[in-house]
Write a structure and sequence with these properties.
By secondary structure, this protein is an alpha/beta fold. It is about 45% helix and about 10% strand. It starts with a strand and ends in a 19-residue tail after the last helix. It comes from Undibacterium terreum.
Length: about 375
């Protein structure tokens, strides 16, 4: 049992509270196992009609996977061949699948930082999800910043965001706020943090059979606080769709370079700081993911993450960002012009035959 995950049942709702505030609720393997275990227990429990997941901290819902653990485990053995890493990603992605297809309403209060693995435990399937954002929400899939790619099902949910919004978010790793999250269909309703105590009171006392309808009714008076003009994504939607529709990163960079608008130049500057190889891998992932099921996306990402650690780009990214904190990663290759299709292709080659894939049982 993880000390960082608190659970209880009240008013036929199963409450999961992430409680690792010093690490912004970064997910450990023990936390993943605890969340999985309790969701499996509650899935068929008669006394649980819905699940509500939140954080004990106003700073973060979940900042992602424990990247320092990634680095320590990945450098402890040759070529990142760590059994702990293998278990972590296999079990995390299986949890993402479990949440996506959960048979009961799955409600996530996304207050504070929601990034990477935090998105994986927030982006449930449309038949069960209810994603609540606040004025403190800071949402991102920032993996390209550390030489990784938007995993935890990012190939599925980013590729299904309107237009090219998911491509933009995946290739830049930029942070968005509540209005953007709702506009990009990565969140459902907004409430201010001042209303959270009343929301909790509603959850623990309401007798309404449809808890998601009750939350929508509760959040309705706050909808006017989210204005379209507050959404950066909405403001720049036409430019995003125009520049990020290409299927080659070089083509995207070229069109941004030719566009003198402040947004295009800022976006270009951001992309030039990311791993050239993993930005290219991410674009390929998103284009493939648009035509795959959830399970197929997660299997693809499991193949990708294994190769990513063996390649070492993510280890260099974490070193620069978290370990040495010099913020000067030595990307390999160092420039987009040096990235070839032969470098990208191995990320999409499975290390396992179909019958032995660690996520072969997902459907």
């Amino acid at each position: 049992m993880s000390e960082y995950v608190q659970t209880f049942v009240q008013n036929q709702i199963g409450f999961i509270t992430l409680d690792r505030p010093k690490a912004l609720n970064s997910l450990s393997l023990d936390m993943i196992r605890e969340i999985t275990q309790v969701l499996l227990q509650w899935r068929d429990a008669d006394n649980v009609g819905a699940v509500f997941i939140s954080s004990s901290s106003e700073k973060a819902f979940c900042a992602g996977g424990d990247i320092r653990f990634f680095y320590d485990a990945g450098t402890a053995t040759p070529k990142g061949d760590s059994a702990l890493l293998e278990d972590f990603f296999t079990e995390e992605y299986a949890l993402n699948h479990l949440i996506h297809f959960y048979p009961k309403p799955y409600i996530a209060l996304l207050n504070g930082v929601v990034m990477g693995g935090g998105m994986g435990i927030a982006q449930a399937g449309p038949s069960c999800r209810m994603r609540i954002v606040t004025e403190k929400t800071k949402m991102a899939m920032p993996e390209v910043n550390i030489g990784l790619f938007p995993d935890v099902g990012g190939g599925y949910f980013l590729s299904r965001a309107p237009g090219q919004l998911g491509t933009y978010l995946g290739l830049t790793g930029e942070i968005i706020r509540a209005a953007d999250a709702i506009y990009a269909e990565l969140a459902d309703v907004y409430i201010p943090t001042s209303a959270i105590p009343a929301l909790m009171q509603l959850l623990t006392s309401t007798q309404q059979a449809d808890i998601r309808a009750a939350i929508r009714e509760f959040a309705a008076p706050f909808a006017a606080e989210i204005k379209l003009e507050d959404s950066m994504l909405a403001t720049h939607r036409s430019l995003i769709d125009q520049h990020f529709s290409a299927n080659q990163v070089q083509a995207i960079v070229d069109t941004l370079s030719d566009d003198g608008s402040p947004f295009a130049q800022q976006t270009l500057s951001v992309m030039q700081k990311r791993s050239p190889l993993l930005v290219s891998v991410t674009l390929e992932q998103l284009r493939r993911g648009a035509g795959l099921t959830v399970a197929a996306c997660l299997r693809m990402e499991r193949d990708m993450v294994r190769y990513c650690f063996k390649h070492g780009e993510v280890l260099e990214g974490v070193r620069a960002l978290v370990v040495d904190k010099d913020n000067t990663p030595k990307w390999a290759p160092p420039s987009l012009a040096e990235v070839t299709q032969e470098m990208v292709a191995p990320f999409f080659v499975s290390a396992w035959p179909d019958h032995a894939h660690p996520l072969r049982h997902l459907d």
